[in-house]
Amino acid sequence: MKSLFTPFYTLFVWLLHIVATPFLWFYSHKKKYTQSIPARFFLQNNPKLEKDGIWFHACSFGEIKALAPLIDALPKDKLRITTTTQTGYEEALKYSEQSRYLPFESLLSSWMTPQKVLVVMEAEFWYLLFTLAQKRGAKTLLINARMSERSYPKYLKYKWFYKKIFAHIDSIYAQTKEDKERLENLGASDVKVLGNIKFFSIAKPTEKLEKPDGLMVCAASTHKGEESLILEAFKALKDKQPTARLIVAPRHPERFAEVHRVLGYYSDLQQWSYRKYSSGRSIKADVTLIDSLGELINLYAISDIVVLGGAFVPVGGHNAAEAAQFGSKIISGEHYFNQKDIFAGIEGITIAKEGELTELLQYPKLLSPTKIINHTDITPILLEIKEASL
Q1: d(CA 25, CA 150)
Q2: Cα gap 322→311, rounded to integer Å
Q3: Which positions ≥6 away from 39 have C-beta within 8 Å?
Q4: Domain chopping of the chain, boundaries
Q5: By C-alpha distance, which of 355, 331, 364 is closest to 241?
């Protein structure tokens, strides 16, 4: 019966694909998915990867960037990269022309070419991705693997399924001991604890910006519902410090227009100056919308306080290491469950419970500067990749 699981599973995902097709067609007309859905589900402009390479797969922009030290240490002609989001794909192209969207599982059998190594980032648990890659000769690695306390009970309900996935993964490098224990309880073996590689690959500024006068507050990687909370808190700060400035960088580019309306309306109401960063690349207004990618690291370098998004709503939080490298004062919400290892490796992050952001932001002198106290060595991963790719 065990040998029949793969064909039955393949049939299941094909049926799922067919049933979902009308919905996929509908969502493919939304700006966020105009490239990714046609490429992933219908192989539009998504040719096969060249054979016999080192194949990296990561979900999105941040994970692709975190892979940079590994990618940079390997022969460029051997690199193959897949991702699932448009921003991730655009970032992957910076490293290799052999970059693609990862097709949905039903299409992998006909699309996948034999590779020397498959390296998958974090929690991309696709059964056919690992199974087919291994059967076609690749050594399979799961790196920076994590299993959050919040997600773990849900995974346990389907332990039988994840055990089948882990049976096709040769090596696993986990972020923490807790991740290792949870993964092993789900059926994983050969799990090594290495730490979070995002500490190894912290992005550096690409240009030096001039800091305007006044306290600079950076609202970074914000999600829907967070901008209004931050604006209210900033108003209280600005009442005390009229020269304070706020820059807002939404997490997802497709929200730029929506956030522009919110910031513009609120600024008019408070009689604040407001502008978009794309209009002259100035941050001298009271409120500035960062409506382009790749700017955040430069802004962190001149920010006094970073209000880190993704944790004031239950998203899971975002990487605080990029801001912490500058000693910034960082305020996060409580919902950072996907970033616990990162947060544990940084001293001084202030956690704002519900309703506390306004009070905390009013008294910046009481906030602590941050300091990175955790570091990660990627050498074991790199050695295994190089050995397998010979």
Answers
A1: 32
A2: 16
A3: 45, 46, 100, 101, 103
A4: 2-200+378-389, 216-372
A5: 364
State the amino acid at position 139 in one-letter form: K
Nearest to 183 by CA among 125, 120, 119: 125
Question: Among 157, 279, 295, which residue's Cα sits nearest to residue 218?
Answer: 295
Q: How many CA atoms lie within 13 A of 238 on its CB side?
A: 20
Q: Are 212 and 240 in contact (CB under 8 A)?
A: no
Phi and psi at residue 385, in whole multiples of 5°?
-65, -45
Asked whether the domain spanning 216-372 has the same topology as the one spanning 2-200+378-389, the reply is yes
- What architecture does CATH give domain 2-200+378-389? 3-Layer(aba) Sandwich (3.40)
Q: How many residues appear in the chain?
A: 390
Q: CATH code for 216-372?
A: 3.40.50.2000
CA-based nearest residue to 306, from 281, 286, 279, 333: 333
Alpha-carbon distance of 348 to 370, in angstroms, equals 5
CA 179, distance to chain mean position in Å, is 18
Global pTM?
0.77
**What is the C-alpha separation between 278 and 296, in angstroms, rounded?**
13
> Using CA atoms, how far apart are residues 181 and 169, in angstroms rounded to an integer?
16
In a structure prediction context, what are the per-residue pLDDT tens digits for the chain, which is 390 residues long?
A: 457 999 999 999 999 999 999 999 999 998 889 999 999 999 999 999 999 999 999 998 889 988 999 999 999 999 999 999 999 999 999 999 999 999 999 999 999 999 999 999 998 999 999 999 999 999 999 999 999 888 899 999 999 999 999 999 999 999 989 999 999 999 999 899 998 888 887 888 999 999 999 999 999 999 999 999 999 999 999 999 999 999 999 999 999 999 999 999 999 999 999 999 999 899 999 999 999 988 999 999 999 999 999 999 999 999 999 999 999 999 999 999 888 888 989 999 999 999 999 999 999 999 999 999 877 889 999 999 999 998
What are the CB-based long-range contacts (under 8 Å, 24+) for 30-34? Answer: 30/254, 31/254, 32/86, 32/252, 32/254, 33/86, 34/86
Do 117 and 388 meet the contact criterion of CB atoms below 8 Å apart?
yes
CA distance 288 to 331: 19
